[in-house]
Amino acid sequence: MFNLPIVQRELLIASRGLGSWLSRWILAMIAVSLGGFWLLVGSSVGQNAPGSLQGDVFFTVMTWSCFTYCLLAGLWTTTDTLTREKNDGTLGLLFLTDLQGYDVVLGKMFSGSLRSFYGVLAVLPVLALPLLMGGVTNTQFLRTVFALLNILIFSLSCGIFFSAICRRTGQSIFYTLLFLVIITIVPLIYFLMGGVNETFSLVSPVFAIYRAHIPQIGPGLPGFGWYPLWICAGLFASIFFLGLASWIVPKSWQDREVLFRKKHFILSDFNSFRSQHLNSNPVSWLVNRNASMRQSRIFLILYIAVAWLAITLYSSLVDRVEPSFIFTGMSLLWLGSLWFRIDLTRHTVSSISEAKESGALEQILVTPIDEKQFRRGHFRAMASFWAWPLISLMMAPVLYICIQVLMHPEMLDEGGLIFGITIIGLIFVCLPLLSFFLDIFALYFSGCWFALRNHSFGKAFWKTFGFVYLLPTVGSVFLCFIGPFTGLVTGTIFIVWPLTSL
């Protein structure tokens, strides 16, 4: 029998904390409020809609809401558990005892995931309401519960794995989110483009939850037999990530020895690079010294270029563009904008948070540089750093439309340009563009404010990205026609508020 002292200690501490009880209570209240609102709407409809239909639709809405929560749970629970220990220098102290890698990994995972697990358990009674309303079977409900728990464990395992291999919390959050988005969207795009290989669906959690919550009436649905296979594949992937993390953790906290020749080259290049920024703008060194952000900026530009080239070449080879192809192009553009938002947020937060922890911020502010000069220098450095990715992201759809007009002049005769100057055209083009730029400024100024107010990178990042982008985006889905204007309101609020508080 395994003795896991770290797991016991971390579970006792986490279970007694106020946050575990508070998060469970908040999620339960949200679920109960949503269920009560749905019952109120269903009772007002009366005889126009059968109860089974109301229960089926409510079950679908709650299932996909829980799926989103379970899929993203690892981002704010386990991605910073090991990186925080590395930055504090306390991870190596744990291995001075007879503890093994799996002791530390499982202990950190259980302590970080307790709130998420409590949240899912709090929502399950509300998810079971459609069993009383009708339209949902017991088997359908049990399949959904097991799929949600499987996805939750998988997300937590991904977070703890990337936390084991990364040095910074920002890197861990970024790679975890990128991995989850890829395994979720890429199989979806594959099937929308006409793919028929069902084996590819084992990679995506979307297909597992879809095949779990759909009703099975009469003979088995086509492809339904893949559901238990995905459950086994998900559990195997979770165990695999945990095993890799347990093997990596005892080695990842140690500093590697640098060869003399390589060390001399790195120091000379490092000193010249630092002098270049310190001479022009002392604050810009805080922005440009992060090597991972420079690499991520290059990868983002390469992603935009490759996606634009693939979309343009495919459009030139076909006579007629299908709606699925347009959806694929919009998805790739949205993914690039999401990548830009995440990188901008974590770069803003990390540059100030790391400077505050290392004492560099205090050393700059004791010089004749005052707070206003610091803010202006930091803003100019960030604008210069992210100028080319922003230009690439903006010019990609414009160049694509120009090339399509040159290759197909008949688009002008069909009224394609008239659409752009109508009210609908302004809503679908100008409103998202304005909302995107407001998000950029709101993420930057709010990131600076939260980085100064919070002691850890994870809290500052999730407060910034959650309040500015995630919550308004999720809320706009439920506000129907008012939804597109939500980003404008929240973007303006999170620009004015940090500016008046910094």
Element layout with pairings:
Blueprint: H1 5-16, H2 18-45, H3 51-77, H4 81-88, H5 91-94, H6 101-127, H7 129-133, H8 138-165, H9 169-192, H10 205-213, H11 226-252, H12 260-280, H13 284-288, H14 291-317, H15 323-358, H16 360-365, H17 371-385, H18 387-407, H19 410-413, H20 423-453, H21 457-477, H22 486-501
Helix pairs in contact: 1-6, 2-3, 2-6, 3-6, 3-8, 3-9, 3-10, 6-8, 6-11, 8-9, 8-10, 8-11, 9-15, 10-11, 14-15, 14-18, 15-18, 15-20, 15-21, 20-21, 20-22, 21-22
Keywords, please?
about 500 residues; mainly alpha; about 0% strand; globular
Describe the structure.
- The protein is mostly helical and 502 residues long.
- The chain has three domains: 19-252, no CATH class; 260-414, no CATH class; 419-502.
- Helix content is 80%, strand content 0%.
- The chain contains 22 helices and no strands.
- It has helices at 5-16, 18-45, 51-77, 81-88, 91-94, 101-127, 129-133, 138-165, 169-192, 205-213, 226-252, 260-280, 284-288, 291-317, 323-358, 360-365, 371-385, 387-407, 410-413, 423-453, 457-477, 486-501.
- α8 runs antiparallel to α10, α15 (323-358) packs parallel to α20 and α15 packs antiparallel against α21 (457-477).
- It is globular.
- It starts with a helix and ends with a helix.
- Residues 217-223, 259-268 and 416-421 have low confidence and may be disordered.
